[in-house]
Design brief:
Length: 165
Amino acid sequence: MSKLSIIVAVAQENAIGKNNDLLCYMPADLKHFKALTTGHTIIMGRRTFESLPKGALPNRTNVVLTRTEGATFEGCQVYHSLKEALPHFESEEEVFIIGGAVLYTESLPKADRLYLTYIHHHFEDADTFFPQIEAEEWEIVAREDHDADEKNPYPYSFVTLDRKK
C-alpha cells in the first residue's frame, strides 16, 4: 500500500479557506506544494478542482472525487469515494490528499504523513477549517521556519509529521 499523505496550508484556528479559495497568496507555499506533489497522484474533491485557476495540475495524476454520477473533469480520473479511488493507486510510493475540508476530515484517520504549511496569522473571515490533529498520534520529522518577506506576506513554517507507529 502506498503512503497516504495530506498536504495543506493551515492558519491559526486551523483555518484553510474562504469562499472556496485559499486564505492568501503565499508563493513559497505554492512552490513547496509543487515540489512535493509533482510526479505523484493528487486526490481532491470537486470544489477543490473547480477552484484551480487552470484546471488539472500538470505533471501529476489528478483524481477528483464527486458524488455526481457520470461527471467528467478534463485531465482527471473521477471516482465517487476515497474508498473507491485508493485501491487504484496502491502501487504508488505516495498519494497526496490536497483538499478540501470534507476530504481532509475523511482521510485524516487513514493518513500516514501530514505536510503542513503553518501560516502564522489569524484570518477573521475564514469559513473553512482543517480537522483537529491529535498531537499524541503524530511526531514532527521536519520543520523549517520562515519570516514574512516581499513575496510572502506572513511568517510561515513547513512542518512534516508522521503518524506514530
